[in-house]
Amino acid sequence: MKLKEMKIKELFDTSHTIAERIFDNHTYAWEVLPEIGDFIRSLGPLLPENEYRKIGTDIWVHKSAKVAPTIMMAGPMIICEGANVRHSAFLRGNVIIGAGAVVGNSCELKNALIFDEAQIPHFNYVGDSVLGYKAHMGAGAVTSNVKSDKSLVVVHAEDKDVATGFKKFGAILGDGVEVGCNSVLNPGTVVGKESNIYPLSSVRGCVAAHSIYKSQDNIVAKENREEAPAPKKRATRKPKVVK
After folding, report:
1. Which of 10, 52, 62, 75 has the fewest beta carbons under 10 Å from its own?
2. Superfamily per CATH, domain 3-221
3. pTM for the whole thing?
4. What is the pLDDT of residues 113-137, one digit of tens each?
């Protein structure tokens, strides 16, 4: 995956997040990680009061969101329309959970931007990361956001290494990425849109869009397949309205 393929516009349709403006004047998604908290504090007071309720300090929750009473959370944070935050989730602040997104049982999030309809459903850790529209992490998959030697994270593109200057940086997942169960995304991982990561993978570096990651030395491009025609719908009668 070359550096130009990691640009924000190559990874995401930013219309699928309430935080679209955070990407203004940035080239790569990891550049927004230090700004998530301040962005939430600036956006939260502008959210319509008839749609969002404010909880405690700097936490805004859409009234249609399903939030289990057993979660632990700290601000700043925004939970958007129709999101589902389940039992025992631990939300540590600087978190945006997009519309229709799922944060499941016993998941932990901190300093994370989760696009609309992304799913983090079972026993996941997501820290210092961005997950794109409809990205999905299988059960037990985690982002590792600190290197074992505590050195600064470097993004290893195919054509160039990029020093981020961050001690903590997990992963960037493009739109539609599927991460298999119990996989580890090592610090500075970038996965292009619509790619699949096999279960039990340890991913280092970058994975190009529309790829299948089987192992570090076995990454293959997805085959182009023509879409099957949609099945014909059966004709149905509309029920009569009794007046």
Report:
1. 10
2. Hexapeptide repeat proteins (2.160.10.10)
3. 0.90
4. 999 999 999 999 999 999 999 999 9
